[in-house]
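tool=predict chain=A
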Amino acid sequence: MSKPGVLSLFGGYGIEMEYMVVDRETLCVLPVADEILRAVAGDYVAETEQGALAWSNELVLHVIELKTNGPASTLEALPQAFAADVTRIDSLLGAMGGRLMPSAMHPWMNPHRETRLWPHEDNAIYRAYDRIFGCQGHGWSNLQSTHINLPFADDQEFARLHAAIRLLLPIVPALAASSPVADARRTGFMDTRLEAYRGNAGRIPSITGRVIPENAAGREDYERRILAPMYADIAPYDPAGVLQHEWLNSRGAIARFDRHAIEIRLLDIQECPLADLAIAAAIVAVLQALVAERWCGLAEQQAHDTEALETLLLEIIRRGDLGSIHDPDYLGKLGFSGACATAGELWQHLLESVRPSPLAPGALWRAPLVLILEQGCLARRIVKALNQGQPAFRARLADVYRALCDCLAASRLFRG
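tool=predict ok
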C-alpha cells in the first residue's frame, strides 16, 4: 500500500531546466547566478520559490536552474510557466549586462579558467565534489540539462517504471542532443555533454556506472546493486559522509526514494521550454506504453543486457537521430518489426504508435516534435547552421548561439 500523499505512476511530473548566464554582448559566461537569486529573494539563497516554479543555483555561478515547485499535475501548462520565468530572469539580467543562453554546453567556455563554484549556502557539497573530482572541466562546469522526475508509489510500481526507463534511455539523445560544439570546435559528437558527463566521476567508476542503470527489482535490490557499492567506494574520499546520498548516483536515471520518484537525467536542454517539454511528453507517452507492456512484458524489459544498452547509447551520443540500431531484439521490444533502423526512424514509429499521439493534429507538442523528426535533433540543426554563411568559424559560432539566445527569449523553435 502506498503512503498518503505519494503519487502513483504518471500521477505528476517534476521538470528541471538549467540555463547558462552569459554576457549580453560577448556571450561569454557571466558568473552572476547568485545575484539573480538575491534580486528576488533578498539574500544569497540556494533556492527560492517563485510561484509555480522555483529558482536555484546549480554548482557554478554561470548556471541557474528553473524547476516545478512540486509535482505538476500535467505537462501542458508548463511551457508558459517556464517561458514567463525565462522572461523575468532575462529582465533581471538586463541590468547586469547579461542574458540566458540555451543548449547543453557553452560553445567556447574554457572551464579550467572560467569556472566559479557557488560560494554561498550548501557550498560544502560543491567543495567536496571539487576536492574529490575537480570541477574545473566540461564534465562538471559546462553541461546544462533538463531532468524529468516521474513518481512511483511502491516497489511494484518502481520496478515497472525503472525497467521501462532503462530500456528507453539509450535513444533519448536522438531527440534531445544539443551539444555538438565545445572549445570553439565541432567535437564529432551530437551529444558532447553526455560524452563528457559519462567520464566526470572516473576516479570512482561506480558513481556513473555504464550510465544505463543496472536492472533492479525493487528498492532493496537497487540499494544492494547500485547505492551500497557507490557509498563504499567514495567513503575513503568522503569520511564525513557529505556526498553519501541518493543524488551522488550519476547514472542517466536515478532512483530518488526520498521523494518516491525516478529522475531522468539524459536530456540536453533545448532552445526553448516548449521544445524541452515536447520531448518530455514524447518520453512519457512511450514510457506509459512500456509500463502497460504494450510491446513486451516486464520480464523481457528487465532482461535486456546493460552492456548492450550502453553500446547503443554510445552510438546515439555520437550520431544522434542518425545513430544506427542493429539489434532486432531491442527493436522488437519497442514494437518495431524491422531488423535495423536509425534512432530517428524508431522515434517516428514510437510516436505514431502511442495513443494519444503527441504528433496528433492540434497537439501542443506536434510542431517541436515534427521539427525534430524531420530536421533532426537540435545538435544537428546547430551543425547545419554552422555550415552556412561566412567562412570564419568563430564568428559564425557567435551568430548561431546568439540566434539560440533569441529563440529562448522569444519562446521560438530553432530551425537552423
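The CA atoms of residues 83 and 135 lie 30 Å apart. The chain has one domain: 14-410.
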